[in-house]
Amino acid sequence: MRAVVFTEFGGAPELRDVPDPVPSVDGVVIRVETTGVCRSDAHGWLGHDDGIALPHVPGHELVGRIAAVGPEVTRFRVGERVTVPFVSACGRCPECADGNGQVCRNQTQPGFTHWGSFAELVALHNADVNLIRVPDELDSGAAALLGCRFATAYRGLVHRARLQRGERLLVVGCGGVGLSAAMIGVAVGAEVIAVDIDPVALERASSLGVAHTIDSSGLSESEVLDAITSVAPAGVHVSVEALGRQATMRLSVLALAPLGRQVQIGLFSEEPVIPLPAIIAKELSLHGSHGMPASDYPALLDLVLSGALDPARLIEHRISLADAPAALEAIASGDRSAGVTVVDIA
C-alpha cells in the first residue's frame, strides 16, 4: 500500500510503498476513504509523543470500509463502512466496564501507538468494541472528523459540562477544535461567543452560527473580559479553551459565571498555572475531554444526520495522499487556517 512515512522526528515525511497491514485476532483492516489532518498528528511527527516508534505513519481521524477481519471479530464484516474514536478501548479494563473507553488504561491510538490512517489501509484493534457504522450518505470528510475533534468537543460540552439550550458558551480559540465546539454549541441551542486573534477565523465562526465574536488581538485580559461581559453581563455558563495556552486558559476560567463549567481541550506543552482563587470563590468546575467511547456515538451521529450539525462545513481543503506530507509540515509550522484539511484516499 501507499502511506506517508517519517523515519525521524521532524524529518521530511514521504509517500512510499510499505507492506499492507494484517488484522489482529480481534481487529480489522480498513481501506481508508478519507482522513483528517489534525494538529495532534503534527505533535506526533515533531516527537512530542513518547509512545511513537519509528518509522511511523501518522493519522487518527478516518472513515473507510472494512477490508479484512480477524477471526475473533463477531459484530462486523468485510465491506461495512465505519469510523472509530481516536482512542480505541480494550473493552476489558475497569474503565471500559464503566463505559469510559476514552480513558481506557490499555488504549491504542492509530497514528500514535501504531501506524495510522495517512495510508491506503490501516489496522484497528478490538473492533467489536470500537467500530461505529457510518451511513453511505454521510460525506466522507464529515465522517472522518467525527473520530477526534468533533467527538472530543461533543463529549466535553454535552457529557462533561452538560451544556443546555439557552446557556451562554464561550469558545476561546477558533481553530479546528474550537470551531467544532462552536458548531456543537449552536446545534444544541446555546448562545455562542467566540474569541480569537484572527479575523478570518472569527468570520468563519460567524458563518457557522456563532452569535458574538471578539477580536482579542492587541487587547489586555481585562479588555477582553469587558468585551465578554458586554454580551454576557453575569459571565458565561460554559467555556472551552481550545488552544493550550496559559493566557487563554486563564481568560476562559475568569469569564465564567458562578457555578460555571470550564472544558479544557487544548493541550499544554508546559504545566499551566490555574487561577484557583476564582475557581474556589465562584465554585467553578474544570472538565477535561479525551475523546468519546464508541458506545456514545449514536447521539452525535443523530445530530449530524438530522442536519443540525454538519461537520463538512468546517472543511477548507480536500487534498490527495500525495499532498499529505506538505499539509502535515504546514500545520506543524503554525498554519492556522480557518478550517480543516482532509485527505481523500479512496
TrEMBL record:
Q: List, for all copies, the residue spans of the domain called Enoyl reductase (ER).
A: 10-343
Q: What would be one Pfam family of this protein?
A: ADH_N
Per UniProt, which keywords does this protein have?
Answer: Metal-binding, Oxidoreductase, Zinc
Query: InterPro entries of this UniProt entry?
Result: ADH-like_C, ADH-like_N, ADH_Zn_CS, ER, GroES-like_sf, NAD(P)-bd_dom_sf, Zn_alcohol_dh
Reported cofactor(s): Zn(2+)
The molecular function terms of the Gene Ontology recorded here are: oxidoreductase activity; zinc ion binding
- Which family does this protein fall into? Belongs to the zinc-containing alcohol dehydrogenase family.
Name the UniProt record assigns to this protein: Alcohol dehydrogenase
